[in-house]
Amino acid sequence: MKPKQSIIHLPVYQPGKPVEEVKRELGLKDVIKLASNENPFGCSEQAKVAIQNEIASSSIYPDSFSAALTSAVAGHLGVERNQLIFGAGSDEVILMLARAYISPGDETIMADETFPQYKHNSEIEGAVIIEVPLKDGTHDLDAMLAKVTERTKIIWICNPNNPTGTIVRQDELIAFLRKVPSSVIVALDEAYYEFVTDAAYPDSVALIQQFNNVIVLRTFSKIYGLAALRVGYGVGHADLIHYVNQVREPFNTTRFGQAAAAAAIGDQIFMQSCKDRNSEGRSYLCEAFDRLSLPYFEPHGNFVLVDTGLPSKQVFDALLRKGIIARARWTYYPTHLRITVGSMEQNEKFIQALEEVLEEAAVLG
Ligand SMILES: *Cc1c(COP(=O)(O)O)cnc(C)c1O
């Protein structure tokens, strides 16, 4: 038995450590996970009711076309229903996009470092991966444009970028899109769209009316707090979406996910309160990092990539022993931690633990 050549070297995805595992391994009672950019405030109460209402229909397949959810999101965004595709998280929309558009030998361009799923799924399809280093933690659009050839199929832009949290601005993005050949798809991953408060952030859904080759990816996993239910979507020109739909599995989103997501997008009051509390927490963390003289990239999502000045693994392990799960894993950022903005209580506990870790290291150092 031999798997296909393109997957032999692929790593298995390594998720953030689960809370229960850390509690068990380290014998801790209280553990805070700030590793996976999950919503510390849970999800909308209306989404919970919607999930409960579906339990009685558990034996019935979900609606393959997610009709009710499609209407809810189309209404919310002001787009046509045939401009939307839903996936088991936006992870699956990334997978479907690669599956529909990439053939072996095609080229695909992305930042380095960025969200790993663009590379992962493109490699499975046999693509040639062109990685363009970030400039000051931000996408270098000119350098990415310079890599376009007649074999280029998809350019991926993660905005805000994971793990750095930086954004590409509306003016830069428009100038870029004007120069990208219309045959090349530009995938704008906006998993953290709802957290952005900077006025220079693009209005990407308006841009899809002008640029047929743009697909915007969003998710219910982050601000809407429905990560467990796996719902994300793509929005773009109907023709582009049509081909993605052709490779979609028949029942790729669940009854629970569809119902909860439709209720969640209807509860913008909950969304706004999460956005406000995130902004507050994000500012709190940045002020603390300033006070501790720790550099960080300007954060626009619900996480901050901060430079602790010490090997990431050392700080990660020391925080873990204090019951805080952070994320540390990046090739170019060996002394950085990515920390999710939590509730204020969690943020304060994290900063206190970090200060202790830094002091202990200074004493030993
Ligand atoms: C979390 C995340 C996603 C997708 O999450 P899903 O749960 O699959 O919707 C996509 N892109 C980025 C950059 C993310 O951080």
Automatic annotation (TrEMBL):
<keyword id="KW-0368">Histidine biosynthesis</keyword>
<comment type="similarity">
    <text>Belongs to the class-II pyridoxal-phosphate-dependent aminotransferase family. Histidinol-phosphate aminotransferase subfamily.</text>
</comment>
<dbReference type="InterPro" id="IPR015424">
    <property type="entry name" value="PyrdxlP-dep_Trfase"/>
</dbReference>
<dbReference type="InterPro" id="IPR015421">
    <property type="entry name" value="PyrdxlP-dep_Trfase_major"/>
</dbReference>
<dbReference type="Pfam" id="PF00155">
    <property type="entry name" value="Aminotran_1_2"/>
</dbReference>
<feature type="domain" description="Aminotransferase class I/classII large">
    <location>
        <begin position="29"/>
        <end position="354"/>
    </location>
</feature>
<comment type="pathway">
    <text>Amino-acid biosynthesis; L-histidine biosynthesis; L-histidine from 5-phospho-alpha-D-ribose 1-diphosphate: step 7/9.</text>
</comment>
<dbReference type="InterPro" id="IPR005861">
    <property type="entry name" value="HisP_aminotrans"/>
</dbReference>
<dbReference type="InterPro" id="IPR015422">
    <property type="entry name" value="PyrdxlP-dep_Trfase_small"/>
</dbReference>
<dbReference type="GO" id="GO:0004400">
    <property type="term" value="F:histidinol-phosphate transaminase activity"/>
</dbReference>
<dbReference type="InterPro" id="IPR050106">
    <property type="entry name" value="HistidinolP_aminotransfase"/>
</dbReference>
<protein>
    <recommendedName>
        <fullName>Histidinol-phosphate aminotransferase</fullName>
        <ecNumber>2.6.1.9</ecNumber>
    </recommendedName>
</protein>
<keyword id="KW-0808">Transferase</keyword>
<keyword id="KW-0032">Aminotransferase</keyword>
<comment type="subunit">
    <text>Homodimer.</text>
</comment>
<keyword id="KW-0028">Amino-acid biosynthesis</keyword>
<feature type="modified residue" description="N6-(pyridoxal phosphate)lysine">
    <location>
        <position position="222"/>
    </location>
</feature>
<dbReference type="InterPro" id="IPR004839">
    <property type="entry name" value="Aminotransferase_I/II_large"/>
</dbReference>
<keyword id="KW-0663">Pyridoxal phosphate</keyword>
